[in-house]
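User: Could you write out the 3D structure of this protein bound to fructose -6-phosphate? I've included everything you need below.
Assistant: Certainly. Input first, then the structure.
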Amino acid sequence: MKIIIVKNKIEGGKKALEIYRATLKSNARVLGFATGSTPLTTYQELIKSDLDFSQIISFNLDEYVGLQADDPQSYHHYMEENLFKFKKFKTSFLLNGVAVDEKAEIRHYDQLLEKYPIDLQLLGIGRNGHIGFNEPGSSFNERTHKVGLTESTIKANSRFFADEVQVPRYAYSMGIKSILAAKQILLEAYGSSKASAVLRMVQGPMTTACPASILQTHPNVTLILDEAAASQLS
Ligand code: F6R
């Protein structure tokens, strides 16, 4: 794993932009995106940049089950507000949170991912070490699937909702196997609340108890961490 330590998330966004620039230069055509608070400064840098995404296909890691694309809390809406309304992409694939046939939706997403392999996947990390919505205990062998969210994730995500009761209990997520299929992975983590998960991801044993620890096996992972998130690394 290549580790880049930055002062704060603003600087982290600038470093991430450099990686996107190099990746696009090397003819990447497919990008995988994440939501949450972590990638916001990266999206701001991408928006301000001169990078052209009009020939780029994008995927998103996950979506809440039960939320319409235009629901203000959906990840569709997040992407629209934080990136897509500013930068034009060729096509953007996101899981449909209100798909009537859940199995068909999952199958279709896997087929798309197979057809358009991801060149660069952006990730955040949960305090419990989750990536995407792959919570502790998730199999390393799964592709897209439906997951029940853990109490800690529901609590952490409730900051985006009026109250905790409104946080959906299920989500669709690319699995660990789909994430590892990306040619390159960029994970960002900011703040002391991520320090223990970062330690377990980088220096801990590879275990499903910390899903991000599987990234130790991927040949091309870059971590952008601020000093607080890196504070427990030796
Ligand atoms: C979001 C996602 C999640 C987040 C993680 C960190 O699409 O897949 O795994 O990356 O929960 O969230 P933040 O960035 O809000 O701390």
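Residues 2-226 form a domain with the Rossmann fold fold (CATH 3.40.50.1360).
User: Perfect, thank you.
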